[in-house]
Amino acid sequence: MTGFELLERDGLARLGRLVTPHGPIETPALLPVVHPDPARQPVPPEEMRRRFGLGAVITSSYITWRTPPLRAAAQRDGIHRLIGFSGPVMTDSGAFQQHAYGSVEVGPEEILAFQQAIGSDIATVLDLFTEPDTPFDRAASALETTIARSTAARAARSGLLAVPVQGGPHPELRARSARAASELGDVLAIGGVVPLLEQYRFVELVRALVAARPALSPGAAVHLFGAGHPMTFALAALFGVDLVDSSAYQKFARRGRLLLPDGSVPVEDVAEPFCRCALCAQRPLPEVARLPPTEREPWLALHNLLTSAEEMARVRQAIRQGTLWELAERRAGAHPALRAGLEEAKRHPAVFLPTEPASRRSFREVDRSSRERPAVVRFHRRLAAYRAGRPAAHPIGRLALRPEYLQHLPLEDSSGQPLRWETSSALGPVPVELTDLYPVGPYLGVDEFVDPPRHRPPRAMREEVAAQFPPGSLPERDWTEAWTAYQVRAVLEWEFGPAVASSLAPAARGERSRRTGRLRGIAGDGVPWFVLGTDGIPSPTFRGAAELHRRLPPGQRRVVVRDDAVPFVASGRTLFARFVHSADPGLVPGAAALLVDGQDQLLAVGRLLLAPHEMPRLSRGVAVRVTGHRRSPAPPAEETEPAGEADLPD
C-alpha cells in the first residue's frame, strides 16, 4: 500500500511517512538531485543513503529520455539500476528545462509513459512552468493546460503521481491549482518558484505558499521544487512542506563554495578548521581550500550534502520538540530577504491557526518578532473575548501565582464589589489568574533577563495594593483559598466556556504544587478531574471528561467514532482517521476531546493529532491519541482491529 501518513506535527509542519514501492520516505525529507549519468554525478547516490541516511533522491526523466544511451539503459534496467540507488526515486518531467531553455521536445503523455516504463516511484506531470512575473491571463491559460495534463496523467498512472501547483504570482490561481492538484496527486508539488528562490525573493515565495497551502489536501505529501539551500528548510517546513529537492550541494561546490546552515562561504577564504565533522576530521577545511578544483569539487559536494542532511535532521527534531518557529526565526537572521519572508508569513495567521497546536512545552523568544507568532495572535484574540463584559482591572507589577503573593491580593473590596487584577508580561497585560497559561506561562524572553522577577516582600506587596484604594476600603484577610477557587473557575472558563465553569467550579478543588505554588490539578468528589501541565491548560481525566460530557452541549468538544471502532476506542485503543465520523470544528491539534459513539455515549478522552478538517481527508494514521477511557471489557479475542488499520502503529 502506498500513500502518506502523518505521525507527529508542530502546526502545519509534519513528521510523516510516504510509502513507495521501494520503501517509505520519512518526512520532512531532502531529495538530492542526482544526474542520471553516473559519470557526471559527484556523489554516488548509494553513498548518500549509506553515509548520510538520505533515503530518497530525485533525477531527471527528461535528461534520461533525450540522451539515447541513458534512455536505452533506463528502459532495459530501470532508473534505479541506472543511477545506482536502491531506495525511492522521484523523477521530474522536463518542466525545469522548459523554464531554463524555453521549451522541451517531448510531450506530456510520452514523458509520463517513459517514467512509468523506467520504474519511477514518484512520476511527475509535465506542467507548464509559469514564471513569477507572468500576467494573469497567460498564467490562467497555462494553468488550465496544467490541470488538463494532470487529469490525463492521473487516468494513465496507477502509481504515485506528483502534480505541480502553478499559478505564478496570482493568489486565486495558486488556490485553484492547489484544489485541482489535491484531487489528482499523491504528491502536491509547489512549482514555478525556482526563480524566487534563486533571486532571494522570499516574500513572493511566502505569498505563493500562503495562497496555496489552505487548499492543499492534508492527505498528500507536499513538495517544494528547488528549495535547495539549507537555510530555507525551516521556513518551508513551517508551511507543511514534506519534501524538498536540492542540487545546491553540487552547484555551490562547482563554484568553490561551502554551504552552511545560515549561508555559504568561498572555501578559499577558510583559514580556520571551524568544522569538526567526520569529513573534516580526515581533511580539515584549510587543507581542502588548497586542493586543485578537480579534487576540491567532489569533496565540497559531499560536505555540502552533509550540511544539508544535518539541517533537515534539525528541522525534524524541532518538529518533535515543538520548536520549529524558533529554528525558522534563527535561520531568518541569516539574510534580510529570508527574514522579510518570515515576517510576511506572520502577517497571515489564518493560514496557520487551524492547525496551530493548543500549546507547546515551551515558548522561547528569538527576537521581538517572536511575539507575532500565531500562538500569540490566538492568545490575544481569546483574551479579548475573556475580558469582554468584565470590569476594568487594576494593574499590579510582574507577579507569579505564588500563595505568598496571592494572600495579599484581595478579590473584593469591603463593600463586596469584585476586584480584577492584571500583571505585566512580555505579551502585554494579562489577568493574574491566567498568567500560567501558554504562551505566557512558559514564555522565556529578553525581558526575563533585562528585568528579572524579584522576590517581593509581603509588606511591599500590601503597600502596592493599598496605594490604589482609599484607606480602609480593603478587608484584611488571607486570600489564598479564594484565589485558588477563582483561578480554577477562570481556567475552566478559558478552556470550556463560562457555562461549564459555573457548573463545575462549585464542586471543584484546586491543588497547587508545593514547590512552585502553581495550580497543578483540579479534583472533585475526591478524584482527579483535570491535570495542569506547564502550559496551564486543564486536561481532563476520564472522570473529568464525564463531568464535561454532562455539561457540554451535544457536538461540542466531541469527536464521534464510527461504529466499527467503538469497542476498540472504549478499551483505550488509538482512534485512526478513517474511523472518525465527525469532529467539532472548533478543536485544534493538541486539544483534549471527548470521544463518543453515534448516540453520544462517552467512550474515552484523548488529544487530537489531526485538525477536524484534516480527518476526513486522511485515509491513514492517527486522528486522536486516547489518554483515558471507559475501561469497558476488551474486544473479544476473535475480534481484530477494524479492516485496513492492522498495519498502522497503535
Write the layout of secondary structure elements.
Layout: E1 3-10, E2 13-20, E3 23-27, E4 29-34, H1 45-52, E5 57-60, H2 61-66, H3 68-77, H4 79-83, E6 89-92, H5 95-101, H6 108-117, E7 122-124, H7 136-156, E8 160-165, H8 171-184, E9 187-190, H9 194-198, H10 202-212, E10 221-224, H11 233-238, E11 243-246, H12 248-254, E12 257-260, E13 263-266, H13 278-282, H14 285-289, H15 293-321, H16 324-332, H17 336-346, H18 349-352, E14 363-364, H19 374-387, E15 394-396, H20 403-406, E16 421-423, E17 430-431, E18 443-444, H21 447-450, H22 458-466, H23 480-496, H24 498-504, E19 509-512, E20 519-524, E21 527-532, E22 538-540, H25 542-551, E23 558-561, H26 566-570, E24 575-576, E25 580-583, E26 592-596, E27 602-608, E28 622-629
Helix pairs in contact: 6-7, 7-8, 8-10, 10-17, 12-15, 15-16, 16-17, 23-24
